[in-house]
Amino acid sequence: MNHTNRHRSPTRPLGFTLVELLVVIGIIALLISILLPALGKAQRAARSTKCLSALRQLGTAHQMYINDFKGVVVQPVEYDKNFNPTTVFWFQRLSRYLNKKEERPGTFDTVDVSAVIKGCPEWEAIDSDNNNKLDSDKLGYGMSRRLRTPESRTRYHIPGDGKGGTDPNIPVTSPTGINGPISPDYTPTAPLVYYPPYWKISMIKKPASRILFGDSRNTFLDPSLADYPAGKPGWDLTVGISGPGAGVSGDVGRHSAYRWVQYTDPKYKQMRANYCFVDGHCETLDPIAAEKAINNPQ
Questions:
Q1: How far is 116 from 240, CA to CA, in rounded Å?
Q2: Residue 141 is inside which H or E element, if any?
Q3: Which of 19, 137, 199, 244 has the fewest Cβ atoms nearer than 10 Å?
């Protein structure tokens, strides 16, 4: 009798058991839950780096503009009959130094300016006017107009000619208009200090701690001073991040996990955005530090 196979173990079926599969799936799910936040953080950091690079190029373009115009700071907005639309913004003037194009026809998609101006990968065009057209004047970055704070809240503006300004629709002496000495959100405790344009770079104090350009949902970067520094910030976070009215000054959480939270939320201080300073260097700041670097740079 052949006893060769008497003690042979039963043949095990090929593949995994249900328990083994569940264990493997559980391990994979755990690894994904650990890696996804880190991956998201790395992606945000990479996009923020690209944004900072674009802002540095804007800073360089502004230095070239200053050299060409004998130290004059670029105008935030001008009236120029040679353009269509005739309202010409700061980013159009600087775009000429980047790709020699400065036209702003149509919508965000057709604006013919340097890709650097649209250089923030986190920015998505908005239709703040609710006219079913993406805004052509809101490209992701804004310019600070109150460059003489805290001595004055004067907004850098179109020079007046005594006859209504360069644009006849803009009054020269309006107390709350673009040529006014103050903005309607501010009641000074000291006598008014009004600084007429043009402003030269030599007039701008503390260039290494004063913001010039930065992430913004508006063409400008002008946080209010109404409740500053009493506790309530000047950034308007009451509107939606998109849709009608979304084109507010600043975008203080663009480069963080918390894009748009109220100042009462503990996460408010964790929000981050990018800024270029008057001297050309760039930094990533929280909302409180950014507001200080505009309203009261140290």
A1: 26
A2: strand 141-143
A3: 19
Q: Which pair of structure tokens corresponds to residue 181?
A: 């000495």
For 142, the enclosing helix (H) or strand (E) is strand 141-143
**Would the pLDDT of 257 be above 80?**
yes
Name the nearest CA neighbour of 156 among 139, 144, 167: 144
Report the C-alpha gap between 157 and 296 in whole angstroms: 20
Helix (H) or strand (E) holding 22: helix 18-68
Banded pLDDT at 256 (limits 50, 70, 90)? very high
Token pair recorded at residue 182: 């103050």
Mean pLDDT over 3-13 rounds to 54
* Predicted pLDDT at 162: 43
Domain boundaries, the chain: 18-295
Summarised one tens digit per residue, pLDDT across range 45-78 is 899 999 999 999 999 999 999 999 999 999 998 8
Q: What are phi and psi of 143, to 5 degrees?
A: -110, 135
Whole-prediction pTM = 0.79
In angstroms, the CA 243 to CA 97 distance is 32
- Strands in 273-277's sheet, in edge-to-edge order, are 141-143, 211-215, 273-277, 282-285
